[in-house]
Amino acid sequence: MATEISRSPSEPLNTSKVLKAAIFSRLLLLVLTILWRSLLTPYDTSAPLNPTCLHNPSSFPPPLLLSLASAIENGVVWDSVYFVRIAQCGYEYEQFYAFLPLLPVCIFAFSRTVFAPLVPLIGYRAVLALSGYVVCNVAFIFAAIYFYKLSVIILKDPNAALQASVLFCFNPASVFYSSIYSESLYALLSFGGCYYLLSGSNNIAVLWLALSSLARSNGVLNAGYFGFQTMHQAYDAFSLKKRAFLALWILIRGALRCVFIFVPFIAFQAYGYYNMCLWRSSDETRPWCKARMPFLYNYIQSHYWGVGFLRYFQFKQLPNFLLASPILSLAVCSIIYYVNTRPEIVRSLGFQASVEERSAMAIIYSFQKSLGSNDTQFSEKLSCRNHENHNLKLRKKVSRGDHTKGRIVHGSSEKLGYTSAFILPFILHVGFMVATSFFVMHVQVATRFLSASPSLYWFASLVMTSPNTSKKWGYMIWTYCVAYILLGSLLFSNFYPFT
User: Fold this and answer.
1) What sections of 277-411 are H helices per DSSP?
2) 8 Å CB contact between 325 and 484
3) How far apart are CA 488 and CA 28, in angstroms?
4) Using 50, 70 and 90 to split pLDDT, how confident is the model at 398?
5) pLDDT tens-digit profile of 5-16?
6) Looking at CB atoms within 10 Å, which of 117, 125, 238, 344 has the fewest?
7) pTM over 0.70, yes/no
8) How far apart are CA 228 and CA 349, in angstroms?
9) Do 269 and 295 contact (CB within 8 A), yes or no?
């Protein structure tokens, strides 16, 4: 019989600890940012500049608290300038379409409602910036809570989940989660979407993951989680339950859910095409508009930022490769460890999981809610059909001495933690992102690009708590996080390059 997901008595206490860690980390970043800006002169002092909007220009009287307004606006640096400008004036220029609309929409909404009374005091642009800070920091706090809940389901160990969640609260890209960047919203929607998916709330999960593709372009990759779920559900329905029409329905339903996650990002590309390509003369038409498959986002990344396969492999970029090397090394090690520990899971895409894992996956992937009332019989049938073969394989492994080589030879999914079959889709996800960040993107962006990958923190937690590893690795991980928090808050807040 499949085992149900139990709730540990320590979970509410740990949730409170995660909440405190998330709030403390945001306050720490705020203090560091104020400290560094008071001690150093910004490299670029153009942050307060605010030209009149091209369309529908509006003017506001000078703010009453000019010094406070300037202090808030001076924190609008790097990509924050784009997000605030889009919230204020819309998508004025072609390169603005590299920044997806969810964060600007949230900033605009808060500036016109909650913080609208502050406009006479600090001015509209400062209100936009304040709205952005509140949205991003509050989103981060909720992201940390959802990450803990997700980790409990995956790791089945509240203490390991707490360790991983605290690491996320103090991750090396922390400065971006406190700034007006889309990382916080993306993390919230991704973690929350995965949590609802594994909790059986598929419709909520689809909505959250679809919204993640409006926060960051890599949100479309989250469709892979539903793809993994659909693949296993269809296989079990067809090969074990012998219900071909049910398997077909599962495939159709899963495909529609994946498409729904892609729709917001595609719709935004269509919006850009409408604004930049239609109703323009041939002289004004941009080159990408004439392409057989006009894709605005790829063109902007390539044309304005020089993003492309191996285009960043230049000797002068060596410092940036070194800057990204810690996060890339951690990600690669997490993948290698999982592949070496559970090679049969990776080779079979999870289909060779143990009986206990397969039974647990039947619950976690919501068979009871989505496939009808015969799922109890299905779980029993699954267990009876595979239990004998599983025991035979287990005896063979023991007789070969695989347990002396560090292989997993037991079938209890309760004890697998990071090496369970549930981790596989997250490993595949981070593997694709590592390859993309190393070979295609500006490699230094990998620090924040990979910072919302759950498997990194699960692996780091394993390394820090496992009795088989030296404590020095835990110290190195914390040293890396602390160093990048200090360095990032110093450089980023003063408009110096950092990832």
Assistant:
1) 296-305, 318-341, 343-347, 355-364, 367-370, 375-400
2) no
3) 13
4) very low
5) 445 556 677 899
6) 117
7) yes
8) 9
9) yes
Q: How far apart are CA 104 and CA 82, in angstroms?
A: 9
Per the CB < 8 A criterion, the answer to whether 416 and 385 are in contact is no
Q: Encoding tokens for residue 357?
A: 């894992």
Torsion angle of the four alpha carbons 253, 259, 261, 267, in this order, in degrees rounded to the nearest 10 = -150
Place of tokens 């709330």: 201
Cβ neighbours of residue 418 closer than 8 Å, sequence gap 6 or more: 155, 337, 338, 455, 458, 459, 461, 462
Nearest to 99 by CA among 302, 300, 306, 309: 300
Q: Which run of H or E residues covers position 214? A: helix 202-215
Neighbours of 479 (CB within 10 A): 12
Say how many C-beta atoms besides its own lie within 10 A of residue 98's C-beta: 18
Residue 438, token pair as written in the block: 């190393």
d(CA 155, CA 462): 10
pLDDT at 311: 95
Nearest alpha carbon to residue 278 among 263, 265, 262, 296: 296
Radius of gyration of the chain (CA): 24
Distance CA 429, CA 432 (A): 5
pLDDT digit string (tens) for 145-200? Answer: 999 999 999 999 999 999 999 999 999 999 999 999 999 999 999 999 999 999 99
Report how far apart the first and last C-alpha atoms of the chain are (Å, whole number): 49
Q: Find all residues with CB under 8 Å of 140, minimum gap 6, and list them.
A: 22, 26, 177, 178, 184, 187, 188
Dihedral of alpha carbons 459, 462, 463, 468, sign = negative
User: Is the separation of the CB atoms in 460 and 330 below 8 Å?
Assistant: yes
